[in-house]
Design brief:
This protein is mostly beta strands. It has one domain: Methylamine Dehydrogenase, Chain H (7 Propeller). 8% of the residues lie in helices and 45% in strands. The protein is built from three helices and 28 strands. The protein has a four-stranded antiparallel β-sheet with strand order 1-28-27-26, with no helix packed on it. A four-stranded antiparallel β-sheet has the order 2-3-4-5, with no helix packed on it. A hairpin with a 5-residue loop joins β8 and β9. The longest helix has 21 residues. The radius of gyration is 21 Å and the shape is globular.
C-alpha cells in the first residue's frame, strides 16, 4: 500500500472528505485554512482563507461546485470550490461544530455549541444554487434549540441527512442518536447508542447503513430507517472516526490514545493505526501504521481504491490499496462453508427428484 504524505496543515487535522467523483480531497484542521488536493498525485490545488477559528467540519456538494465549512469562529461559510471565493457567511451564536448539505444541495444543516446564554442549536438554511448569494438570509428556515438534560448541557457532535432528506440524524456527546423532522423540528426517535461521546457518524453511499465512532472504544453499525443496531466493532482505544467501504464488506476505524497523553507515549504504544474489520463477521483482520498521533478523521474514496486519514500530528496520509487487496476475496468462515456445501447437496437431490 503506497501512501502520499500531504504536508500542508500546521495544526491537528479535524476532518477529511473526498468529493463525489473521488478525484479531489478536502481537508480541514485547527490552522483555520481548509485545503483541497488532487487525489491522483497528492498535489495541493488551493486553500479557502477567511476563518478565524478552528474549522471543525466541511461538506462539498454533489457536483463539486460549492463547499460548506463549519468553524469555531461562530460562522459557517459557503465557498466557490473552483475560485476559492467566499460566497456567503452564515453567522451563529456559538461555535459551529458540524455542517451537511441536503440531497439536491439547495439547503443545508448546521449544529452549534452552547455559548453564554445561548443553547446548542440545530439550524437548517436555504442556499439555492440558482439564487443570487447576496440575497441569502442568515435567518434559518428551521431552528431547534437543544435543552439541558437533568441540568446538564448536551452538545451535538455530528449531523447528517437521511435518504431523500426525510430526517436529520444527530449524534450527541452523551452517547445519544436522535432523528428530527427537518420541516417541523419535532423529535421523531432517540436511542442511547454508546456509553460515552459519539465523535462522528458516517453513511454508506446509498444511505442504507450508517456507522458511529465513540470514545467508549466501540464503533456500531445501524439501520437509519428505525435505528436498529446491527453490528459492533470493538477496539482497545477511543474511536474518532469510522467509514464503510463502498467496494468490499469492510469497515475502517481510526483513533488512538487521548491527544493530551500523546507526548509521553511512543507511536507504537499509542496505537495510532487504521484498523480494518470485516463488516459482517465483526473481526479485525489488518492494520495500517504511519501516524504519530491519534487519527481524528478518515474517509474512503467512492471508487474504493484509496482512503485518507488525518491525525493529531498535522499530516494527511492518502493511501492507495494494493492490487492484491482489491482482488482478494474475503475468506468464508468454516461454518458458512459447511452450510454452502449442504445447500449444494440439497439442490442436487432436488434436481434428481425432479428428473
Amino acid at each position: 500500500m503506497r501512501p502520499y504524505l500531504l504536508q500542508g496543515h500546521e495544526r491537528p487535522i479535524t476532518t477529511v472528505q473526498f468529493n463525489h467523483d473521488g478525484d479531489l480531497l478536502f481537508t480541514a484542521s485547527k490552522d483555520l485554512v481548509p485545503s483541497v488536493w488532487r487525489v491522483e498525485n497528492g498535489e495541493r490545488l488551493g486553500t479557502y482563507n477567511g476563518h478565524k477559528g478552528t474549522v471543525w467540519d466541511l461538506d462539498c456538494d454533489r457536483f463539486t461546485k460549492r463547499l460548506l465549512t463549519a468553524s469555531a469562529d461562530t460562522s459557517c461559510r459557503l465557498w466557490d470550490v473552483r475560485t476559492g471565493e467566499c460566497i456567503f457567511v452564515f453567522n451563529h451564536r456559538g461555535p459551529v461544530r458540524g455542517v451537511a448539505w441536503a440531497e439536491g444541495s439547495q439547503m443545508f444543516v448546521t449544529i452549534s455549541d452552547p455559548f453564554v446564554d445561548h443553547p446548542a442549536k440545530i439550524c437548517v438554511f436555504d442556499a439555492p444554487e440558482d439564487q443570487d448569494p447576496s440575497t441569502y438570509s442568515e435567518t434559518p428556515r428551521l431552528e431547534i434549540e437543544l435543552p439541558k438534560i437533568n441540568g446538564k448541557v448536551v452538545k451535538p457532535t455530528h449531523v447528517h441527512w437521511t435518504a431523500l432528506n426525510e430526517d436529520l440524524l444527530v449524534a450527541f456527546d452523551n452517547g445519544q442518536i436522535r432523528l428530527y423532522d427537518p420541516e417541523t423540528g419535532d423529535l421523531k426517535e432517540e436511542i442511547t447508542a454508546h456509553e460515552k461521546k459519539i465523535n462522528r457518524l458516517r453513511f454508506n453511499r446509498e444511505k442504507t447503513l450508517f456507522i458511529t465512532s465513540s470514545a467508549d472504544f466501540t464503533s456500531k453499525l445501524y439501520d437509519p430507517v428505525d435505528l436498529t443496531h446491527l453490528k459492533t466493532y470493538r477496539t482497545d482505544r477511543p474511536v474518532n472516526d469510522a467509514v464503510i467501504s463502498e467496494q468490499k464488506d469492510h469497515i475502517l476505524l481510526g483513533g488512538g490514545q487521548e491527544a493530551m497523553s500523546v507526548t509521553t507515549t511512543s507511536g507504537k504504544v499509542g496505537k495510532f493505526e487504521t484498523r480494518f474489520f470485516n463488516l459482517v463477521y465483526e473481526d479485525e483482520f489488518g492494520i495500517v501504521k504511519g501516524h504519530f498521533g491519534p487519527i481524528n478523521a478518515l474517509d474512503i474514496n467512492p471508487n474504493g481504491r484509496s482512503y485518507a486519514s488525518g491525525a493529531e500530528d498535522g499530516y494527511v496520509r492518502l493511501h492507495f490499496f494494493d492490487k492484491d487487496y482489491l482482488e482478494k476475496k474475503d475468506p468464508v468462515p468454516e461454518e458458512d462453508e459447511a452450510d454452502e456445501d449442504f445447500d449444494e447437496e440439497e439442490e442436487e437431490e432436488e434436481e434428481k427428484t425432479a428428473e
